[in-house]
Amino acid sequence: MWFKNFKLFLLFFTVVFYNCGEVKPETLSVGEMKCSHCSMSIVDMRFHTQLITYKGKRYHFDAIECSDQFTKQNQIKAKQIWMTNYLNTNEFLSKEKAIVVQSKKIRSPMGGGFAAFKNHEDAFPFQN
């Protein structure tokens, strides 16, 4: 009897600890997914933004401004937001650490001119 209880106990904690791991951004292929806000295909990965809620729902956006509008309109509580580094599309930056610049020099899919950079030195040439 105790062995059966021990197996259930072990199974329960295995499931709990497995689901407590660090959540990471998903890598997409060009055109694989549509923006959760405007429904445009995500084709320019320099502006790809991802949001995950506390319940685990993941949303993808084709531009930073779509992510911002979506969270405000739907009153979404984001657990984590990642933005693609404008200069390296293979690198995701957390919203807290990213340097977000709005510039006329940046042509984002929705026309807002927002882009995320890893540091101020990378962002400097794009500032107006």
TrEMBL record:
Source organism, top-level taxon: Bacteria
Pfam families per UniProt: NosL (PF05573)
Name the record gives this protein: Accessory protein NosL
Source organism: Leptospira biflexa serovar Patoc (strain Patoc 1 / ATCC 23582 / Paris)
